[in-house]
Design goal:
Layout: H1 2-39, H2 47-72, H3 76-81, H4 89-98, H5 105-130, H6 139-153, H7 159-173, H8 187-197
GO biological process, one term: regulation of long-term synaptic potentiation
GO molecular function: mRNA binding
Length: about 200
């Protein structure tokens, strides 16, 4: 009888071990899918499909964590802390920063979706920033628009960075008509000098 109980326990432990291994592999695959979604290029028209894919991955992760809790025990917070072992790249860095304030799966899903959508928004802003001057767009309007986009992406950007951006943009747009006889120190002097130089630069 005792030997039978031992065999039963060994069998149950082996089954639990296999189940946990399967669930951990499933968690790894689900998080990997999240990574590939974040790293991939997402055209604006496909954003809804992209969000659905993200949510499907999150649901699979949630189910896996629930199974791990059921088979192994431990708190939801503990299993959430294990997700970092299956993450790579920007998402891992994001989670290292956020995990101290995320205590349950509902919060994780909310925060991760916001992060994912923010990533998509940043990519769209970067694409807009990379576009050339629009046909007929006044130079000062073009420069201010690019400045706003740049500061949206880089909220801590120093003023000198913005000036370097301006100089680069003007060189790209009007290589042969750039007024070079000044060295601006602030954005205000930049545009003051820009007005002075505007007769030399075709709009």
């Amino acid at each position: 009888m005792l030997e039978h109980v031992r065999r039963t326990h060994r069998h149950l432990l082996a089954e639990v071990s296999k189940q946990v291994e399967r669930e951990l592999k499933g968690l790894h695959r689900s998080v990997g899918k999240l990574e590939s979604n974040l790293d991939g290029y997402v055209p604006t028209g496909d954003s809804q499909r992209w969000k659905r894919s993200i949510k499907a991955c999150l649901c699979r992760c949630q189910e896996t964590i629930a199974n791990l809790e059921r088979w192994v025990g431990g708190s939801e917070e503990y299993w959430l802390s294990q997700i970092q072992n299956h993450m790579n790249g920007p998402a891992k860095k994001w989670w290292e920063f956020k995990q101290g304030s995320v205590k349950n799966w509902v919060e994780f899903k909310k925060e991760f979706l916001q992060y994912s959508e923010g990533t998509l928004s940043r990519e769209a802003i970067q694409r807009e920033l990379d576009l050339p001057q629009k046909q007929g767009e006044p130079l000062d309007q073009f420069l201010w628009r690019k400045r706003d986009l740049y500061q949206t992406l880089h909220v801590d950007a120093e003023e000198e960075e913005i000036i370097h951006l301006r100089n680069h943009l003007v060189r790209e747009v009007h290589r042969n008509h750039l007024c070079n006889d000044f060295s601006p120190v602030t954005i205000q002097t930049w545009f003051g000098e820009q007005e002075r130089c505007s007769p030399l630069i075709p709009g």
